[in-house]
Amino acid sequence: MTEIITILELLRPLLRPCELKTLTLIIEATLAMTGRVTMLGISRWTEKGGSYRTIQRFFNGTHDWSKLRWALIKQYLSIKGAGRVWLIAGDEVVVTKSGKETHGLAKFYSSIQKRPVSGLCFLNLSLVNAETRKSYPLVVEQLVREEVKDTAPKAVQKKAKKGKAGRPKGSKNKNRTEVEFSAFQLQLQGCIQQALLLLGCDIKPCYFLYDGALGNNAGLQLVKQKGLHLISKLRHDSELYFQYTGPYAGRGAHKKYGDRMTVERLTDQYLRLKTVEKNIETCFYQVQVWHKHFPDLLNVVVIVKTNLKTGMSAKVLLFSDDLGLAYDKLVDYYRLRFQIEFNFRDAKQYWGLEDFMNIKEDQVSNAANFSLFMVTFSQLLLPQINGLDSDSILDLKTVFRARKYTRRIINSLGIKSDGFLMDDRIFQAAEIGRIHSKAA
């Protein structure tokens, strides 16, 4: 309990005293509880002052969770030391829900179940440290409005009627830096702006990481408008062209596009690395190429994997608008985007992102934001617990559950637990279920 209060002191300027007290009780209960993390479940594990009505009032309120998370992240940075390279990574997470009354309920594609499911979709931006390779949730918003849900990458799209092939008669050339964003892209751009305002002068991220949903010109332009470089993925069948290096024809505009880029045309001058492991040959090529839907050159890394036994091959196209970014950095930064999936895993498995049963708008927003707040809070809390040398959330919950049980037993015997439990060895007998053994 002492460690929780110490960390939450950082949030005193951002919360009213009653809200801070309730949040302390909720966090202590969530760390110790078993079963589903719902408002009723939390109230059953809270100490005095944490009734069900109190928990309801807290989740019915309005809280600026982004500022609360950023306050914790800044404290974490002051303890561990700020890294030199910081990235912002984004992705959507789908939460399955039944019923018909939950705010924002719609059909979204679940990559876990590999089919559309009825549920909620949340857009999350996380701050990623390239040195420690850890991700910290920062901004979370629900995809709610109908036009946003219809244009979200994981939304179930309705089949559109096909128009006539080719360019419309009388159409003129357009400036490809001036694009019209979809409702989802506008919301994503607003989240990026919110994240940059939170970071202020403390951290200056250079790159924004996202999956193939931003592998288009509109996605690139919305990121560039916020002063960041995009690192994303193109379709494997994208039409890319080498720069034209031939002679000038003597009339008209200079030729821009050369031969179309294919794996067969990637010569050794573009090869950066080749590895062979378990009969799988992996080649990394880096090339600056044109795409007819993008206004500027793209820095593309082509990853080609070939099965030496069968001869079958596959390729992945990663790209960035930063032409000076080395191939290994581009690949490594894109891999760091997966750290956000660990945030989603912990939020669903331990902190109630998959469990909450709230249906109203504010309650749904608070429940989702609280679960991702606990992801950041637990990362900050883990180093403060004596004997926890691992990053196991299960061990963290086991320790706090042992403390709660031990205090209840000692108090039931009429002994004041505050002085009796100063020695941490008292808790060891109740710490059953830990994965990692206690440090000597």
Automatic annotation (TrEMBL):
This is Transposase. The lineage of its organism: Bacteria, Pseudomonadati, Pseudomonadota, Gammaproteobacteria, Methylococcales. Residues 154-174 are annotated as: Disordered. Coiled coil: none annotated. Residues 22-277 form the Transposase IS701-like DDE domain. Residues 156-174 have a biased composition (Basic residues). It comes from the Bacteria.
